[in-house]
């Protein structure tokens, strides 16, 4: 049974149960999905001056050629920037830029720029997910002060298509659709201030409980996904492997993580793979919860929903994704090569997370901007305990139009104080694109499997 058929079957079964569950939004509100709202909850109409067009269905499979190794080509190869924002003209556009973007112009006035292209609302997902979003809207609720989800099935993916709070918007980012079970090879770098860097290459297996034949709905009820990550380069780190069982309610059942150290040939529990624990092989330039722009339990923050605004955000970054580029084309001193990027004007949800009294995190505040069409975080500013803007995150979105999945061509995290940055998720020099449809079982994600993967 293929992925889309599996999702349809699950949705139909859940629809029969929906009438017996207390609704999260009213049926009248849920009826807006697919009418005045897109099927995933964005405003369907364009903005007043037409600079943001109406959503008309997004990119569909076959929108552009696919290479033999699976990589997707740019569906808009002829697009040119409409204008470029630089330190010289940034004041004209400051109302449509995040504080972090403005800070980047101050930190790198001679090199940081934002090329702005025509806005193309490319977001799309399989019909089964649109059907499931309506079920989520009617049923899913937060529990444990927003730290868990009630009446939620993982195949829905989008927990709150009509959100009422900041934490619900954060949950939409964490539960967005990213494709089926897959194996991928990605690269990370943490360039020094002078631009020198070492590529760290990861092989990742990612699986979802609802797509695994040996995980029952009961057994997988509080699990969002499983991931096994092996370092394959450089040689000094190769063979180290991390395994994560990502739970939904991490207060009720904390994230389960193990690490295999190739030098010691031992598997150990790894509670540091969470919150502000150091990101794997990142030279201290990112935290564990910086991966995917933000991940993990939301319990250490109070999340305030500010509202919506229009912002120039990285979007449709197929050029940055291109296999015609080498990592050396992208990685430059201070920040990535902005001439390879693409920004567009889109509506975003604005959410501010502030560390709760009595909780701790090296980021005292996170200021997030989440794309309304895909629920992917596009910009996130990180403040230290003194209230100073410290690190600026940018997520360079692409839509996998074959899968209907929102992905990143790159995720960057700029340290304004150190003058360095981390970039994660590069695939330009990988031999194969994400290999979807993997037939994983739970046995592939056990500590024993972790040890086997790391043997060298």
From TrEMBL:
Keywords carried by this UniProt record: Signal
Instruction: Indicate yes or no for the key word Electron transport.
Output: no
Q: Where is the signal peptide?
A: 1-23
Checking Pfam families in the record gives: DUF1329 (PF07044)
Question: InterPro entries from the xrefs?
Answer: DUF1329 (IPR010752)
Q: What is this protein called?
A: DUF1329 domain-containing protein
The opening ranks of the lineage are: Bacteria, Pseudomonadati, Pseudomonadota, Gammaproteobacteria, Pseudomonadales
């Amino acid at each position: 049974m293929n992925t889309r058929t599996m999702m349809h079957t699950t949705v139909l079964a859940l629809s029969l149960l929906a009438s017996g569950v207390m609704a999260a939004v009213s049926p009248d509100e849920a009826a807006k999905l697919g009418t005045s709202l897109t099927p995933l909850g964005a405003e369907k109409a364009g903005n007043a001056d037409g600079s943001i067009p109406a959503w008309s269905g997004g990119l569909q499979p076959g929108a552009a050629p696919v290479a033999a190794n699976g990589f997707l080509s740019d569906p808009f190869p002829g697009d040119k920037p409409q204008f470029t924002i630089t330190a010289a003209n940034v004041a004209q556009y400051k109302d449509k830029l995040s504080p972090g973007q403005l800070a980047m112009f101050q930190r790198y006035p001679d090199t940081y720029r934002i090329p702005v292209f025509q806005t193309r609302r490319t977001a799309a997902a399989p019909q089964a997910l649109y059907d499931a979003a309506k079920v989520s809207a009617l049923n899913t609720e937060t529990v444990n002060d927003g730290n868990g989800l009630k009446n939620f099935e993982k195949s829905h993916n989008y927990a709150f298509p009509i959100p009422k709070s900041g934490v619900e918007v954060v949950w939409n980012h964490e539960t967005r659709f990213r494709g089926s079970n897959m194996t991928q090879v990605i690269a990370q770098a943490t360039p020094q201030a002078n631009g020198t860097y070492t590529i760290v290459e990861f092989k990742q297996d990612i699986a979802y409980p609802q797509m695994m034949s040996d995980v029952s709905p009961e057994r997988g009820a509080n699990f969002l996904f499983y991931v096994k990550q092996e370092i394959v380069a450089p040689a000094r780190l190769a063979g180290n492997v991390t395994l994560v069982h990502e739970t939904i309610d991490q207060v009720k059942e904390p994230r389960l993580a193990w690490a295999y150290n190739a030098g010691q040939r031992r598997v150990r529990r790894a509670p540091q793979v969470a919150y502000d624990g150091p990101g794997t092989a990142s030279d201290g330039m990112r935290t564990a919860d910086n991966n995917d722009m933000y991940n993990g339990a939301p319990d250490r923050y109070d999340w305030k929903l500010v509202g919506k605004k229009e912002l120039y955000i990285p979007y449709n970054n197929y050029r940055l994704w291109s296999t015609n580029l080498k990592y050396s084309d992208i990685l430059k001193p201070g920040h990535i090569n902005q001439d390879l990027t693409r920004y567009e004007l889109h509506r975003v949800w604005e959410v501010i997370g502030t560390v709760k009294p009595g909780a701790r995190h090296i980021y005292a505040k996170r200021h997030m901007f989440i794309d309304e069409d895909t629920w992917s975080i596009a910009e996130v500013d990180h403040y230290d305990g003194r209230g100073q803007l410290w690190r600026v995150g940018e997520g360079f979105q692409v839509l996998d139009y074959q899968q209907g999945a929102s992905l990143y061509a790159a995720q960057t995290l700029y340290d304004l104080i150190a003058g360095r940055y981390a970039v994660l998720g590069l695939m330009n020099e990988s031999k194969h694109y994400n290999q979807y449809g993997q037939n994983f079982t739970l046995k592939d994600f056990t500590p024993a499997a972790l040890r086997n993967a790391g043997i060298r």
